[in-house]
Queue: 2 jobs
Job 1
Amino acid sequence: MEAIYDQIYKKAEVYWDTRHNDIHLPLAYDFAKRLLAFYPEADACVVLPAILLHDVGWKMVPEEKQLNAFGPKATDKAANRLHEVEGVRIAGEILASLNYDAGKTNEILTIIDGHDSRLEALSLNDKLVKDADKLWRFTVTGVSIDYRRFGVELAGYLAYLGDKIEEWLFTPEAEEIARAELTKTRRELEA
């Protein structure tokens, strides 16, 4: 099965050269694999392609609109929604080009369509994708990128992230990972 994920990765990667997705997506993919280890009943054949493909739609959002479409100062919900809609289209094309299972493709596309705008999770697979997507925000790498691009003070941004753990994450394992990553990030960046 790993070979198909490698193929999806390669086809998705060409869409990652915006919004630091070339850094975000590999980290989110690793978090998805970590979370799947806690949930053998989840479907890796849905979760892993969904995490690799969930943000490909950002490539279709003009760069000058992106910063207002996500983050603590987001004001442009339409641009954020556009990345989900375009993500569904692109992900569907990628999965079709690989003759990926139609039933799994439908679930993957449903997850992508609303992965940011839909606050509730539709399934365990959706929870794991949503959690893996957000966990990068707590890492040294994610914080280092985000507090600068959002133009906020580091200490304030770290406090903001700490307050969002229970609001953003669905699984207790993701909450635990977020707390551990945030502790590590504080140690490294506030030293």
Job 2
Amino acid sequence: MDKLIITAAICGAEVTKEQNPAVPYTVYEIVREAKSAVDAGAAIVHLHVREDDGTPTQSKARFKECIDAIYKVCPDVILIPSTGGAVGMTAEERLQPTELFPEMATLDCGTCNFGDEVFENTMPMMREFGKRMLENNIKPEYECFEMGHLDTILTMARKGEVPGHPMHFNFVLGVPGCTSATIPNLCWLVNAIPAGSTWCATGIGRHNYTLVAPAISMGGHVRVGFEDSLYLGRGVLAQSNGELVAKVVRLAKELGRAVATPAEARQILGLAPRQ
């Protein structure tokens, strides 16, 4: 079994300081939270960026500023910029981070309900995202919120519309209106991916840690962070992303699975060593 890759989704596009004062908006705060997560054991930072007032943005310039600043203090970390952005953004807006040629980026695998809103990812949009990642040599993290998302992206990969083998999936379960965060649902998804693929489990809200122990035991990887939950436990606000990562590290230790460094995570994911 490979070592465990921990991803920290440090701010997302929706959560606010009103919900938890530690949610990062500014470049300084985003770097602070990235470092706290990496110091605690995260090999990957899943990155959204904000304006200083907290407004979500996909600005290429803002992403570059944050990415450069994070690499100054965490030179080995794997950064996965989001192309999901925020609900309502256009494909052109969302694709801006790919112009920075990151080693990885997210690719959302279908339209779905997102609470009371609709997160739109039409087939033409997904083909556009896949084309950009093929052209820019970016390895996608395929974000699946629904069972059908997996079938859709596997069909696209067979047609050469998105990068194929080896594929890396993130199963995001528990979003209101989407597939629930249960162990049977996770097992169904994992059993349907191609041999040689890697996968990560993400539980949303109160389900943030529901899937952690099963994913660790099943040989998958894990994502936590303020984007997914602001709480360390029932009624206890996390003081940093590092606290959320440290909890996963403790669970992995109890279950006898070692945690991957960024360099080891690159080997597992088939990425080139960082220069």
